[in-house]
Structure formats: structure tokens, C-alpha cells
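Q: C-alpha cells for this one, please.
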Amino acid sequence: MKVTVELSESEMAEILVLTGERKKGPAIRRLMEEALQQRRRAQIAQRFISGEWGVELESFEADQERERQRDQEIAS
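A: Here is the predicted structure, written as C-alpha cells:
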């Protein structure tokens, strides 16, 4: 989809430098993709911080406990 964006020459020059692109279209596209990716990451981080999402470590913790018990049995 094509979109018309009004930017000053200095803004466009800065976008080209920041993205490392040589052409305007790819530079705008890359800037937009990076901005979206950054916002998505922030949303995911917020879900972890709020507790809405979490990391389930039950099987890992169970394995760790079994290893501890085995090590204690071997040591005694």
C-alpha cells in the first residue's frame, strides 16, 4: 500500500542515516518496521511485568529437585 508522508528534508536525511538505507522508500519502511517491533516488544514486556504472562518452570523445577535428591542419595 502506498502512503504519502510529509517530512522535512532534515528529517528525511536523519531517517536515511539512522536506517542505513540509501533510498527513501526502503528507509521509511525500515523505520516503520523497527518502530512496530519496538512497540510489540514493549507490550510483551508489559504483560510479563503485570503478571498477565509468565514463564512456566514447573518441569524444570521438578527436574532440579530430582537431581538434588539423587545427589543427596549418592552423597549419603
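A few notes: The chain has one domain: 9-75. The CA atoms of residues 69 and 75 lie 10 Å apart.
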